């Protein structure tokens, strides 16, 4: 069992945060999907995929089918990260970016490779921060990419120090008004925030059984779509682009049902997406004012 650093008391502010951190600290080997897919090329993600899958991976020799599936699922999740980075706008080598809820660091490394800039990853899991910093050493980018045991609701970074910030399937663990207040503080005027997240569809009405099942599975609190825009408006973040990625993520989930890594969460995801109670959304927003 991982022993929490003495600093943990200042980073983990609630019992809920402690429970989320404890899961990732004490059960890294239970996270079979993310670790297995990351072993394909050393980019470890903590999110899902988008795009048209190559269904030919389901054909061919049975004894190598699972390997083909893993590589294709990883290609789709990396495509999702590439798409997110596309939304950050004009980022220069001298800029600084932040990955809120950075996991094992996959997208942070991709951002540094693409833009040549400094990237700070923030996670409440000491295990994840350590794993990702080890990856930075192996990649020879410790001068540019650093992972911090910090709470993204209160990072301690200087105000206006970030050109861009992103969160990738992490906002369902926090209060959005608190989160966007901190992000607005961190972003320089005109800086860009990008979020990709699952959210419940207000038009559907009450939270569906499938969305509630997903909440329970991950121990999170999925926000309704409207909550994102309310919290952004309250914190000087003005959307510049909104894209419903639901149609492009459904094929990823359908392909995952064929994998031996399937966890059982595939059915509620597919049900909720197809019935319209759940949406996979990308929002890019600019910081206005000071």
UniProtKB/TrEMBL annotation:
<protein>
    <submittedName>
        <fullName>Class I SAM-dependent methyltransferase</fullName>
    </submittedName>
</protein>
<keyword id="KW-0808">Transferase</keyword>
<dbReference type="InterPro" id="IPR029063">
    <property type="entry name" value="SAM-dependent_MTases_sf"/>
</dbReference>
<dbReference type="GO" id="GO:0008168">
    <property type="term" value="F:methyltransferase activity"/>
</dbReference>
<dbReference type="Pfam" id="PF02353">
    <property type="entry name" value="CMAS"/>
</dbReference>
<dbReference type="InterPro" id="IPR049645">
    <property type="entry name" value="GPPMT_Stmyces"/>
</dbReference>
<dbReference type="GO" id="GO:0032259">
    <property type="term" value="P:methylation"/>
</dbReference>
<keyword id="KW-0489">Methyltransferase</keyword>
<dbReference type="InterPro" id="IPR050447">
    <property type="entry name" value="Erg6_SMT_methyltransf"/>
</dbReference>
């Amino acid at each position: 069992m991982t022993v929490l650093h003495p600093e943990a008391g200042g980073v983990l502010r609630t019992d809920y945060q402690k429970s989320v951190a404890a899961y990732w600290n004490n059960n890294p080997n239970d996270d079979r999907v993310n670790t297995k897919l990351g072993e394909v090329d050393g980019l470890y993600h903590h999110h899902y995929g988008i795009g048209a899958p190559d269904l030919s991976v389901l054909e061919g020799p049975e004894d190598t089918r699972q390997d083909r599936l893993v590589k294709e699922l990883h290609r789709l999740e990396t495509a999702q990260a590439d798409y997110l980075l596309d939304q950050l706008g004009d980022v220069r080598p001298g800029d600084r970016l932040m990955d809120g809820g950075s996991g094992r660091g996959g997208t942070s490394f991709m951002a540094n490779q693409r833009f040549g800039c400094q990237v700070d990853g923030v996670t409440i899991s000491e295990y994840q921060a350590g794993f990702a910093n080890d990856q930075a050493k192996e990649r020879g980018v410790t001068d540019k990419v650093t992972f911090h045991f910090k709470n993204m609701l209160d990072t301690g970074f200087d105000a206006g120090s970030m050109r861009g910030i992103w969160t990738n399937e992490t906002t369902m663990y926090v209060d959005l008004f608190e989160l966007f207040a901190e992000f607005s503080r961190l972003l320089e005027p005109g800086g860009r925030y990008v979020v990709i997240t699952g959210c419940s569809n207000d038009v559907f009405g009450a939270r569906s059984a499938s969305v509630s099942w997903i909440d329970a599975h991950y121990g999170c609190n999925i926000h309704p779509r409207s909550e994102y825009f309310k919290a952004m408006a309250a914190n000087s973040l003005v959307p510049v682009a909104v894209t419903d990625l639901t149609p492009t993520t459904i094929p990823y989930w359908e392909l995952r049902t064929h994998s031996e890594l399937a966890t059982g969460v595939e059915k509620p995801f597919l049900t909720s997406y197809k019935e319209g109670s759940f949406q996979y959304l990308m929002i890019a927003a600019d910081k206005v004012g000071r």
